[in-house]
Structure formats: C-alpha cells, structure tokens
Amino acid sequence: MKSTPVRKPENDIMLAPGNAALILIDYQPPQVSTVESIDRRTLISNVVALSKTAKLFDLPIILSTVNVSNGVNEDTIPELANVLKGVKSIDRTSINSWEDQEFVAAVKATGRKKLIMCALWTEACLLFPALDALSEGYEVYPVTDAVGGTSPESNRAALERMVHAGVKPTTWISVHCELQRDWARAQTVPGFVQAVVEHGRPGWFLNLVEQRQRMKK
Predict the structure, then answer these.
(1) Whole-model pTM?
(2) How far is the C-alpha of 144 from the C-alpha of 38, rounded, in Å?
(3) What would the pLDDT profile of 17-39 be if each residue is shown by its tens digit?
(4) Which of 54, 112, 132, 196 is the most exposed place for a label (fewest CB within 10 A)?
C-alpha cells in the first residue's frame, strides 16, 4: 500500500488543513432555543464535533456573536465555548456578519478561500454572509447538520437559495473525513477517532477501531 503524496493546499479542490477556515456565527442561547429544523441536542453535538475537528487539524476559527457587548443577548453556548477557549469572539450588531468590518477583516486575515460556514439561523445569519462571501470569490461550505432555522421550511429555502448561488453543502462527518483523508496520516488519527467516539454512532466507532487494529498488525 502506498498513498499518493499530500496535495499542495493551494491546488487541492477538496477541503484540506492548509486551505480551509471554520466560521461559527451566533451559537447563542436565544438562537439555539428557537431552532425548529433539527433536534437541538443533535445540533449542539454536531457543531461541537465540527469545532473539535477544526482544532484537531489546526484550522483558523472565526467565532462571532450578535448583541452581547450591549447586553441584549447571552454569549456563546458553554458547550461550544469550552471547546473554543482561546478563540476571540467578534461581537456585532449586524444580522449579516459580512456587514461588520472586524468580521470581514478576520476572514480575509486567514488567507483561506474555502470557508466552512455555520450559523444560526440558516435563513438569515448563514444565508446572508454566505451570499456575500461567494460574491467576493470565496468557496462556502455550509455544514447542513450543524445549522438550523426557525422552521424546516425556512431552513430548506435558505439552503436551496445558497445552493443555487454556488455554495457546497456538506456535513460534519464529511468535513472530518475530508480533512483526515488518509489513515496513514497517523498524527491526527487518535483525535479523529476520538471525535467520532464522542459524537458519532456506535457502528462507526466499531468500524474505526477494527480498521486501526488491522493497520497495526
């Protein structure tokens, strides 16, 4: 068995540790409590898992909140904040984060053109910056099982509008596997498996353990 050489990030059409950034927008208690398009426990588990993935592969992470500093809203939910310790939050008043100067500057400072983007709600705080980012030449990857809308229809319509505009929908486990790409990249395998153990399904865990055992023989 011999894997092909690791692709240069700037030439890789797929998400890779060297070409992607994670953007998380408005994962705050008021927004989470009004999501109706996905089970909220699943939503939280998936966005936490995605954040662990970003940490594992050393992706730049941009975290943004709305109306915290002015006392209107609570800050990022603790489940997510605990994973993102050390990541400075960018607070805004704008519904569309792309209309906040500090936010846009932070995105551009990453130097990454592939944006893994998640926000609450899908129909506003994800849709609007996704459209703006696309218009400025970024590739946008909304993680569909880590976002939510105020109704199934709102979520569906927003995702459909984004797809028509050119976004590339994905899921957290797909991002997880796409960044790992090869079991021979041993440095990140333990963290890769651990995230699946904590946030995936039992069957996935058993398969991963079996594969690791076979590789060690």
Answers:
(1) 0.92
(2) 10
(3) 999 999 999 999 999 999 999 99
(4) 132
